[in-house]
Amino acid sequence: MCASSTTTATADRARQSESTLASRLLANPTPALKWAAVFAALLAVEFGAFLAGSAVVLNSINMGITALLDMLLSTVDPGFAGPVLDLQGFVAGNLEGLRQFGESLPTLLSRDVIPNQGWQTGPTGPWEGTFLGLQPAYAWAVRTLMIVAYTIVMAYWLFRAWLVFRKHYRAADWTPRDDIVDRLRGHRWAEFGIVVLLLFLTMALFAPALGTASVDQNVMNSYSYDIKYFDQEAGEVATINAGKANFNSKSKGAGEENVAPMTYDDFGRFHPFGTNKPGRDLFTILMHGARNALIVAAMGIGLAATIATILALISAFYGGTIDLVILTTADGVMSIPQLLLLILATSLFNGHWLDKILDGGFLIGVVFALSGWPFLWRAIRGPAFQTAQEEWIDAAKSYGQKPRNIMQKHILPYVTGYMLIYASMSFGSVVILLAALSFLNVGINPPTPSWGRMVAQGQPYVSTPSWHISMIPGLLIVFVVTGLNALGDGIRDAIDPESEAGRESEAATGGGA
Amino acid sequence: MSQEVAEAPEATPTDEPILSVENLRTVYHTARGTVRAVDGISFDIQPGETVGIVGESGSGKSVTARSIMGLVDSPGEVLPESSIRFKGRDLTEIGEDEYRDIRGSGIGMVFQDPQTSLNPVFTVGNQIMESLEVNRGLTGQEAREEAIDLLEAVSIPDAARRLGEYPHEFSGGMRQRAVIAMMLACDPELLICDEPTTALDVTIQAQILELLQDLQAERGLSLLFITHDMGVIAEITDRVNVMYAGEIVEKAPVEELFASPQHPYTNGLLEAIPGEHAGRDRLRTIEGEVATPMEEATYCRFAPRCPKAFEDCESVHPSLVDAGGGADGPHEAACLLFPESMPESERIEHHRSRGGDSTEQWGEDE
């Protein structure tokens, strides 16, 4: 009140609004600029791939939303279907253009820059057409290692963005999230999960560049490609149709008809995981299978988690009859066997245009979400109820806050953590489910690559030299699912400050409380 | 301070009460039957007045507060014959949206535990500003200025800096001040304080009570103060309602109540204050526990614990009757020992005839 002029001035300054992020960035731009420069460089070398990837993701979203709109509107009036489909086609066309533009841009980690396909000029002669004249195996290995290194650096750099923000630009010295990240960093099992997730994402995102051949050449339209190779019998470089080459590189169990992992076929093509029954490169198929699995699983889990979270918040906030209605619905949905429902839906919609979106993946994702939300809902209903009993909810009600805002602001932050745990764990189960469907030949439509179909295809050859057809995709499934579960465990331990991993840091900070 | 405030309602005795609760009955439908948590209580609050509700744990004090705020959730229910009139408007008849308008800007509430009435993931400033946005539409710089003023009004030093801190960085007393600031942000006319000092130590308690009295004088707030602490009641309230097992058993102006408590239960409560009877070996207590009122009241619910109970207490439900009011206002007690002017048989008949009405009301439900 009667303070000196200097303290009044300080107080006045303090009364100004808390400094915004923008003002803090302007005050000390160096660390942010340093980070941004490196990030821009990382982005630039792969800009075309990112552009194409974003176009694919946006197009999936476009397909999903318009498909839902179409389903909803056609229940009102079938006449709406036309305009919706027109809109879908228009957006999809533009995005396809964007994707093609993106793919036409040169990127560092691509088959064009580091080619692995070539031909030998003599029986022991040098290779032509490959990267630096290396053997195809080495050229492919160089590209693969570079891609893995790139994703590791990129992932670290994105994490570093948070570190830079925390150190230089965040207003608070400490938030509970810091402890969560610290606990996650010291958690070996979670680190394993993170590594697996990173590898899985690498496989999915860089599938076109990782494969030894393009999926078009390898699977879809192999008869429209010609390849050069050194013909041992004729003793000269010959040209052969890729489809025919595949036909002569089959793995069917017998010693002659088998291309084992890490070997060349008769046409100078290197196969890191061998070939499958029709003679296609298994590695290329599995990389694209990872991409398809990721898209479908992410869509299914995302949708299921959204439904589950909204319903859990409503359950917890209103309780009583509304909760009972949701509970009954959830129990009803849960009583339907998911796998049978998926088989039913895929055969019912067989040939329908819905079944064509993402090669049938969209339908599987939606059915998974509609039948899987009760499991997630059950898991977070408890924590949501617990939070709804807290006094700050009553306090918010007693100053007249709207129910929606109370749910969003005062309950949601407390259930998001649980949702993350359960969603990452269910992610693994969707991967398994997808593989199971493909194994039963009702999943993603052939010939689109899928892991489960490869397991099914190799089944007759498990005890023969062609064991790799089943074994490698099977191991990949186990590996990815274990990793995702590990990540879920890790997040759970990290979020819960009373968990084992948190003991030490708790004791250390206890004195300051 | 309390002296001045105490005189306020007397200066304008004809004013309409800001809150008038009549025959409030809140029940909880449980698996074991219907619990009558609040069973037909009535009281008024005049503008600028502080009314206290005192009683043991489980006597229905907090349920009363929640009923007034409209926060009784399923399986609880405010029975339709209840009436809660706030500024002439019956709150039991309005919809949820209208109720939301009344909450905050009309009636605010301070909860018992300052540890949990602030959301730990948001800063204190964020929560005060949220309240300002909801009730007064203030946002941004304007809201921030107002929030600083409010924190200063509740005597938090260095308010501008404190605004950006999280609840865990505040001490218990500070947190309760912040909660009060959050409620003041709504600019309510009536503030319900549900045991706001119970979780705090004695010196902080005194500071919070003083703060509430100051705020009341500055802003002309009416207060409904709920506590089990007789000392707090003596300090802050003008009129007191003593609750037992969902009913008001005695109501009187605060000085009158402490000078001449009439109901045996009030006597017991006053006897049980530590330090009142220094030198004794043991603290005096009331034997037994508050009964859970499941069935309709056809008898005195305090009778099993009452040192003065006699045969008729088991069969006649006492209603509030005059128990010797003074100049400060009426003094009523619900006990068969009153009114003292009548002989015993006439008293019992008097209570029986008045209690009969409520029995009839209940008859239809059973």
- Report the total helices of chain A: 20
Distance between the termini of chain A: 32 Å
Number of strands of chain A: 6
The helix content of chain B is: 25-40%
Cα-atom radius of gyration of chain B = 21 Å
Poorly predicted sequence stretches spanning 5 or more consecutive residues of chain A = 1-14, 501-513
Q: CATH class of the largest domain in chain B, please?
A: Alpha Beta
Mean pLDDT of chain B: 84
CATH class of one domain in chain A: Mainly Alpha
- Which pair of chains forms the biggest interface, and how many residues does each contribute? A-B, 30 and 44 residues
**Biggest sheet: strand arrangement of chain B:** 7-8-9-3-10-11-13-12
- Which architecture name of one domain in chain A does CATH use? Orthogonal Bundle
Q: What is the average of the pLDDT values of chain A? A: 86
Number of strands of chain B: 13
The computed structural class of chain A is mainly alpha
The SSE string of chain B, one letter per element, is HEEEHEEEHEHHHHEHEHEEHHEEH
Radius of gyration of chain A: 27 Å
CATH topology of the largest domain in chain B: Rossmann fold
| Strand percentage of chain B | 15-25%
Instruction: Provide the number of structural domains of chain B.
Output: 2
The fourth-level CATH homologous superfamily of one domain in chain A is: MetI-like
